[in-house]
Amino acid sequence: MTSTVPATAEVVIVGAGPAGLTAAIVLADAGADVVVLDRLAAGANTSRAAVVHARTLEVLDDLGVTPALLERGLEVSHFVVQDGTHRLATVGFSGLPTPFPYTLMIGQETTEAVLLDRLHTAGGSVLRPCEVTAIASAEDGAVVEFTDPAGNSGTIRARFVIGTDGMHSQVREAAGIGFTGATYRESFILADVRMDWPAPRDQVSLHLSPGGVTVVAPLPDTEQDRFRIVATVAEAPEHPSLEQVQALLDDRCPGARVREVLWSSRFRVHHRLAEHYRAGRVFLAGDAAHVHSPAGGQGMNTGIQDAALLGTLLARVLRGEPEALLDDYERTRRPVALDVVSFTDRMTRMATLRQRPARAVRNTVIRLATRVGPVRTALAYRMAELANR
After folding, report:
1. Are residues 126 and 263 in the same domain?
2. ω into residue 129 within 30 of 0, thus cis?
3. Which among 9, 10, 280, 338 would be 20 to 30 A from 141, CA to CA?
4. Are residues 27 and 134 in the same domain?
5. Among residues 249, 286, 254, 294, which one has the least CA distance to residue 270?
6. Do 117 and 262 fall within a single domain?
7. Model pLDDT for residues 64-119, shown as the tens digit of each residue
């Protein structure tokens, strides 16, 4: 259901994923007239992005969101790297200088639901399904064209537009902003399962093997048997079956017994970055601005942090500060995304080495480097995104 779409707004946000909702909360709290349009009839109903890092918890705590996430999520204090049965490294988060020295495992559908509740508390809402069809520049702003649930066309005149509408962003296309990068050769399996798993539920495991890389992460659940599996394969089936997931785990990280596949999918991974984060009165955040490997679980986190800063800067301009302040957004956040894209690309290429000599060198380097305390701390700090403060 959607209410009547207004004819004007100070800010229109296109896309109601975590980044779009975060920007909307910041703006609504500041008293801005903000409209959120989303083409989907409902929010996320699968776990998809399931990691919230320490820096994101800090950002969302400023908005009063983090306590609700902590109630629903599962705290994970360790990240473990293995090759077969050999443990190469253990990285702990407990010593990090943050009120949240851990990674929080929580499904994206829950994260979005918490953010949406918070937006409602701030007096905002999401109008859906409304699909944006065009964006045109106008004097002192932009005109957003859309179709409503009945198929009727309409327009909203806004001072600013934020595109948080994903990798295939209509906003980015309309703004004429390039999106450069490439696609990894491997496809990825994504599955949420119920299984018996020998490792403790306070750790995420990265398993390296000649067949590919596999990540096993616990998900919050009263029965304590729900896990997320992400794995590279040459060609993934559209919906991996229990037998296929079990065979993959038997080959790469023995010891698991899968009892039920709750949800599964396949996807291709891109590493792309918008050439600019702004075109006049139009801005990009989240997956509309950057996409990259899921290594490290940093995609949604980077997008939420984008949106929090952009919302804050726009709120200040709407209160009368100079528009030149908005230049800080790209200047601050695009280098962060460039660094994340590069970091996750290196992690992915390192993890997917196939040749035995290269794998042996990689394993030796990982094992020796992570025996050094400062190296482990630096890696934990990097994964938690605390360097983005």
Report:
1. no
2. yes
3. 338
4. yes
5. 294
6. no
7. 999 999 999 999 999 999 988 889 999 999 999 999 999 999 999 999 999 999 99
